[in-house]
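Re-run with default settings, no changes from the original entry. Doing this only to confirm the output is reproducible before filing.
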Amino acid sequence: MTPSVPHSPYRSTPLRDLKLTIEGTPLEPTLKRFDAEIAARGIPLQPHYYLSTDWGVPFPSISIGIPFYLAHPDLTELHGQQVGHLEGSSGPAELLQYMRHEMGHVVNYAYRLYDEEEWVKLFGSMTQPYLEEYRPSPFSRRYVRHLPGWYAQKHPDEDWAETFAVWMTPGDAWREDYKNWPKARAKLEYCDRTMASLKNRKPVVTNLDYDEDASTMALTAEDFYRGYVPPDEPLPEGIAGALRSIFFEPGESKSADVRPASELINRLKNSIAADVFRWTGHFPERTHALLRDMARRCDEMHQVIPRSRELDATVNLTTLVTALAMNYVHNGSYLG
């Protein structure tokens, strides 16, 4: 069973009664820094920020929803324990990455860029089905790299938002980074031209939409996470042999300093899930489920790992999970 934050009132108090705010939290100075980036880029548009259940910009609006769990450390810890993947929690740099992406949606909706012929030609139609499950092509030169998981490949709207985020990142490194990526470079050059042309244009859409506003939600954080159902993929057949090649049978190692293999797997699960997602597009939730089942299988087989062999086991486990993830992304199954 997943542990919870002990004795925290943030578990059982309705979200609306927590009086969560951006002001007075670590979010506030980062958002002020982001406002300065908007001004420095000459973007004639100020988004509105609010706390929601997830990242997002309701369509069509200029409101940016920021996950409520980033507004208090107890909620951040609880989210990490229940879901395992924390987007924007590692510090200002990561938070700004997500803000630049969401600002791309704001600009797209505010000026209805998605209706422009060149936008459609470069990015595709906004009416294309938005699928939560997508199978990216890692390192494709058609798309920029910004958020983990090759996120630009998910949908034309995300392709634009990722392109915008790369363009907005201070320093203009994109001119060098994408000089040999003609399709991605063309999108960035379009973004650069378009943003220059918008400096004297008023936005068409200026309405606010606070979708899933945490300040109005009667459910508690405990209720919220109770509704979260992690993926439940069956553990691949034949995985026992792979695990035996990484870990040890009791008594097989000469070292007296051994611990259950499941302890190492559980200690590594968050970092492996995040890194595998970044480079393969395999969702962290699925990687967590895969590692959870691996840990359980190791316990059933009584697998152990000597402390002196933990580094080797970490490399091998990460490589195994990455290979399985790549197979899943491309074939829809871990094996076969």
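The chain has two domains: 9-216, 239-331. Confidence is low (pLDDT under 50) at residues 1-5.
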